[in-house]
Structure formats: C-alpha cells, structure tokens
Amino acid sequence: MRLSYAISEWVDLGEVYPPARSALESVRDAKAELLTQGTYDVNLFHDVASINRALGHVDRTNNLFKSIADADRGVAAKCFHIALESLVRMKEFELARSFMSDPRKEIDHFAMPLKFAPQQTQSVSPEMMQETFVRIYVKKVNLLLQIFTGMGDEEASNQLRHYAVECVTNAQLRDEVTERLYSSPPSTRRIQ
C-alpha cells in the first residue's frame, strides 16, 4: 500500500512538474529492463505493475507479463496475481486462464480475509475493514468471472459467482457480496 501511495504522489507531482513523471517512468523502465533481461524478481514486477497502473499503462504490464511467461512460466506463475487485472483489461483471457488450475481455489484464497478479518483495530472501525475486504473480494472475483465470460463460458462464470457467494460465511457480508456480484455482471470491455 505504501508504494502505491508514493507512486500516486509522484504521478500527481508529474502533472505539475513533468521531470517527476519522467523520473518515475525511468525507474519503471529500468526495472522492466532488468525483468526482460532475466532478473526475475516478483518485487520488481510488482513495482513495475504499480507504476504502470498509476500511469494508466496496463498494456505495458500485460506485455511484460507475456514476455516473462514466454521465458519462464514458473516465474510468471509467481507474478500472475499481480498481472491479473492487466491481463483482464487487455482481454488476455486464455493466457490468464492458463495460469489458473482451479478457479475455486483462487476464490477460496480471495475469501480468506473475509473469514479471518480482525473485528477490532485501533485506527479503523470494523465496519470500514469489512467494507474494504468486501470491495477487494468482489473486485478479485469479478476479474475471474470476466476471464470466463470473455472466453464465452457464461455457465462457468455463473457457477463461480455462486461459489464466491457461498464462500462467505458471515451472513451480513454474504448479503453485501451477493448484491455486488449480482448487481453488475462482469464486464469484458477493454479499459485503457
């Protein structure tokens, strides 16, 4: 979270001071170059993807992931969750699907924070925590649903949506997840 916030500040600064944006792009390009040269580090990929997201360059993350996948699928598998949103946005549904052996296990993984969310924190109310966990869960599940919808498998998408609701054991949270997952079907439009 901290890195994303810092990147956002650099992007904002770049709006009024273009050399800041150029510096951020240079950092991104240097890290991307290391990755394309075979320095496979998930943290490097995360940094590049975060900068690309902040700059609106999801296509670059997509292309970098595809390059890594072509060179070493094992490394790409470690970067998959970081690249997932860019793959969906660029309609790389088949490639994304190839990195999911079991979509239900993905959903189980996404649901973990909802099951074990702390009820009390010092700085954030439990309601805010739950809202955040629900929002993140729905976003991640929708990415998976978009993959199946984009591949033309509406039945699998619907089954996974139903499974995602079943995974939420708290009745109140389940109602919120149900409302969000069923109120707007997953989109497969390309977002820039």
How would you summarize this macromolecular structure in one to three sentences?
By secondary structure, this protein is an all-alpha fold. The protein has helices at residues 2-16, 18-36, 42-55, 58-71, 73-89, 93-98, 103-116, 126-150, 154-166, 171-183. Helix content is 78%, strand content 0%.
Could you explain how this protein is built, in words?
By secondary structure, the protein is an all-alpha fold. It has two domains: 97 residues, Serine Threonine Protein Phosphatase 5, Tetratricopeptide repeat; 81 residues, no CATH class. Helix content is 78%, strand content 0%. The chain is built from ten helices and no strands. Helix 1 crosses helix 2 and helix 1 crosses helix 3. The protein is globular. The two termini are 22 Å apart. The C terminus is likely disordered.
Task: Reconstruct the topology from this structure.
Blueprint: H1 2-16, H2 18-36, H3 42-55, H4 58-71, H5 73-89, H6 93-98, H7 103-116, H8 126-150, H9 154-166, H10 171-183
Q: Could you list some keywords that capture this structure?
A:
Serine Threonine Protein Phosphatase 5, Tetratricopeptide repeat; 10 helices
